[in-house]
Amino acid sequence: MSWREYAKQVQGAGHNRHDRHESPGDDAVVPVVPIVPVAPFQDPARVLKVWHSHLSALDFNRAPEPFELNRWRQIVEDAHWLYETWAAQLVRDGWSAHDIFGVLPWLPGGGVLLDRLQGARNLKLEGGKAYWSWPWSSVVMQTCRGAGDGLVSSGLVLAWEIGK
Questions:
Q1: Mean residue pLDDT across the chain
Q2: Stretch 147-164: mean pLDDT, rounded?
Q3: What is the C-alpha to C-alpha distance for residues 60 and 38, in angstroms, rounded to an integer?
Q4: Which pLDDT does position 38 carry in this prediction?
Q5: 130, β-bridge pairs
Q6: Quick one: how far is CA 145 from the chain centroid?
Q7: 36: Cα separation from own chain's centroid
Q8: What pLDDT does 63 receive?
Q9: CA 129, CA 14: separation in Å to the nearest integer?
Q10: Is residue 163 within 8 Å of 64, Cβ to Cβ?
Q11: What is the pLDDT of residue 9?
Q12: What mean pLDDT comes out for the span 83-87?
């Protein structure tokens, strides 16, 4: 069969592009879009204001149980440094209070950013991760956004909730 004969056969069968308007229409294709829960929007200015009020209430000279005074002073100092230097960017990047200010009172350095920083001041933020090292060590430490929320069940508490 030549192509001309095939074309006549197709045309005779009613497959003509010019009569499409006469054919029954297809039902509209509507994609199924799943409902994905989204964390509620939090105004960064409001979050920073709440954090500031909590941090300003920390007493540098009075360590709550089970902290030794030196460890507590380092935590308070690091908390204020983190807030003053990095809080705005951390909030914009989606870090929670637990990711930043979460500590494990019974395990020194076992919490997240604040608890592990221990005086380091060379913090770098990159793609939801935080990196730092101490002057006396070549080891680069890290933590990531969301780590604090995963440790809450392990006893992680916010620095300003200790002793309450």
A1: 85
A2: 83
A3: 37
A4: 55
A5: 125, 143
A6: 4
A7: 16
A8: 93
A9: 63
A10: yes
A11: 77
A12: 96
The residues facing 144 across adjacent strands are 129
Whole-angstrom distance, CA of residue 97 vs CA of residue 46: 13
Q: Strands 124-126 and 129-132, how do they pair?
A: antiparallel
pLDDT (0 to 100) of residue 70: 95
Count of Cβ atoms closer than 10 Å to residue 64 Cβ: 14
**CA–CA dist 55, 24 (Å, integer):** 68
Helix axes 44-56, 69-92, angle to 10 degrees: 170
The structure's pTM equals 0.72
Q: Residue 102: which residues within 8 A CB-CB, separation 6 or more?
A: 111, 112, 113, 114, 115, 148, 151, 152, 156, 157, 158, 159
Inter-CA distances, 157 with 4, 53, 93, Å: 80, 17, 21
Please name the amino acid found at residue 129: K
What pLDDT does residue 15 have?
52
At residue 132, the 3 state secondary structure works out as strand
What pLDDT is recorded for position 19?
A: 58
pLDDT at residue 162, rounded to an integer: 87
CA distances (Å), origin 41, targets 44, 45, 117, 133, 158: 9, 12, 28, 33, 21
d(CA 104, CA 72): 12
